[in-house]
């Protein structure tokens, strides 16, 4: 019985790696962590803030905060992380598109549990307003999650450059 559980868990973890697909961006940069719940003998529960650059749009950076569980399960990487997340994206330089993209393309993806849960940042273009729209959400293969956060980046002139139009780079 215990061996069946271990084998099922190993197969599920392997399937999660295959189903998750390629990561759209490199690992995020940890900016800082802040403890939220003190635990005596194991790691504390924390909020962690990360930074990530859009791999297809130069000049845009996003920061997101997610909870990280402590305790024994968190210490061994077995805790299922909460779906909560917040997101803020900004223009940090001249915006240049490196490739065409589709509405909802993945900018960043990270596993949030051993079994099929991941957090994703996706990008869209509001062509009417010339604004990039970023959405962070957590999903689970079986039940999904409605928790999400949205951030927008109006494409503004930088220096003397005329701003690009995001609609020109939509597939």
Automatic annotation (TrEMBL):
Signal peptide: 1-25
Keyword annotations from UniProtKB, A to Z: Signal
GO cellular component: cytosol
Domain of life: Bacteria
Xref: InterPro entries: Uncharacterised_CreA
Origin organism lineage: Bacteria, Pseudomonadati, Pseudomonadota, Alphaproteobacteria, Hyphomicrobiales
Name used for this protein in its record: CreA family protein
